[in-house]
Amino acid sequence: MLVLGIDPGTRHLGYGLIKEEAGILSATDYGSLNLSPSLPIEQRLHQIHSHILNMINMFNPSEMAVEEPFLGTGNNQFVGPAFAIGQAQAAVLIAAASNNLPIFRYAPTKIKSVIANHGQATKEQVKSMIILSLSLTVEPDSTDASDALAAALCHIRQRDLETILNRQIKP
């Protein structure tokens, strides 16, 4: 199984592919798509959509895990950026849906809890856990890339947990 993880953003979009084979996990590709803030939003969204379509066609992932936008707390300080991230997420979801790729979405706190055992973990803590968990020899170039790998790894762990629980429920 190959899972494509995405950390959406209209300026920096992280992606990461994790392959699970015979219980062994390996990161096959990861990085960031960096878009110029001087480009109009519609052009950045088009580039995001095209990039994700290309990745799906090139790597043929089995499933996609996407980090949900974070709204923040107090005074709605993150609402504007969250809407922009939501637009990037929509471009990603449309690319996946147009290829009938199953999509799984996770809140940032869920991903942090699964990866770092703490829903309020910092991006650097998540990145460190990703490097350890996947035995990466090349550190992700950004927290966007490590967050994308974290989304993919969170999905794999959640899926494995559901499999175990389903086995225990059935006699």
Structural write-up:
It is a single chain. With 171 residues, the protein is α/β, with parallel strands linked by helices. It has a single domain, classed as Ribonuclease H-like superfamily/Ribonuclease H (Nucleotidyltransferase, domain 5), CATH 3.30.420. Helix content is 50%, strand content 21%. It is built from five helices and five strands; from the N terminus they run βββαβαβααα. It has a five-stranded mixed beta sheet. The longest helix has 27 residues, at 143-169. The protein starts with a strand and ends with a helix. The mean pLDDT is 91.
Offer a quick outline of the entry:
A hairpin with a 2-residue loop joins strand 2 and strand 3. This protein is an alpha/beta fold.
Topology-level CATH name: Nucleotidyltransferase, domain 5
Number of separate domains = 1
Q: State the shape.
A: globular
- Rg over CA atoms, rounded to whole Å, is 16 Å
- The total count of helices amounts to 5
Distance between the terminal alpha carbons, to the nearest Å? 27 Å
Keywords for this structure?
171 residues, Nucleotidyltransferase, domain 5, 5 helices, 5-stranded mixed sheet
